[in-house]
Write a structure and sequence with these properties.
single chain, alpha/beta, eight-stranded mixed β-sheet, 10 helices
């Protein structure tokens, strides 16, 4: 299938759809139309997006509390109200953050919000892992002599099986020193109300620059191979160290586990 020009505002863009679901303003009419189509099929899609972002914030704070001062956010998506560098530097002033994204729209927006010397953005495709890790800007900011917090939230479900996303994660984490952490979330296969609804969701994303490849729980857990998964494991993102008590799955506002997330550490 012919892919769209990422700067074509007449075609929906996956990052801009996500931005709209989060309540952002960096989107265009086709993105909003696609997002509204998505909400008709999956009415809780905006809640899922917000819950995923909240998971990222809790995970970044968790890593900062454990002494992580270097963060590598790959496939970061469009900036929102709170971004990884703001979260990390609020929790640990002086924390260094590198953003990597292969979407020129995302890259341009991230560069526009950077205002200090502790954060940089690089353009790169995670499938070219070695090229990303050799980037001079990344290596000026991050020292691989100390642990790194690697962030891969809601990005691997845009990578097809043909590109072997598990191998990509393995290559990234093998390059990290012991004591590094992986923060990962991923869309779960089979959580739509029906097979027809899931096919409709996939069809919506197939019209964007990033088709969606949800996976089952076992495949998501496999991303953490070789790492020590931390409690409470790979769970719906809203249930990973929630603020206060774990949410009641019988409550009417409970968001199902459409996105699973977890945090793991590379053993010494």
């Amino acid at each position: 299938m012919k892919r769209q020009n990422v700067f074509d505002h007449d075609c929906p863009n996956a990052s801009r759809i996500y931005d709209h679901l989060l309540g952002g303003s960096d989107n265009h009419a086709p993105d909003r139309v696609a997002a509204e189509e998505l909400l008709k099929v999956a009415p809780d899609a905006a809640d899922v997006a917000v819950g995923n972002r909240a998971f990222l914030k809790r995970a970044v704070n968790y890593l900062a509390e454990r002494g992580i001062r270097q963060f590598l956010d790959i496939g970061s998506g469009l900036p929102t109200r709170e971004n990884t560098h703001q979260m990390a530097q609020a929790a640990a002033p002086g924390a260094r953050v590198v953003y990597v994204d292969n979407d020129p729209i995302v890259f341009a927006h991230i560069q526009a919000i950077l205002s200090d010397g502790n954060t940089v953005a690089t353009s790169g495709d995670m499938r070219a892992t070695e090229k990303i890790l050799a980037d001079p800007r990344l290596n000026e900011m991050i020292s691989f002599d100390g642990p790194v917090g690697v962030i891969l939230t809601s990005v691997l479900h845009y990578v097809s099986d043909a590109d072997d996303p598990h191998d990509i994660v393995g290559r990234i984490m093998r390059a990290m020193p012991p004591g590094s952490y992986l923060v990962l979330s991923h869309s779960k296969h089979g959580d739509a109300a029906s097979q027809e609804d899931e096919e409709r969701i996939l069809e919506i994303y197939n019209r964007t620059n990033k088709p969606l490849y949800p996976r089952d729980r076992a495949e998501i857990v496999q991303f953490f191979d070789g790492l020590d998964i931390l409690s409470p494991g790979v769970v719906p993102v809203q249930d990973w160290h929630p603020n206060g008590d774990a949410r009641d799955a019988s409550a009417p506002d409970y968001v199902p586990g459409h996105i699973l997330g977890g945090v793991a550490v590379k053993p010494h």
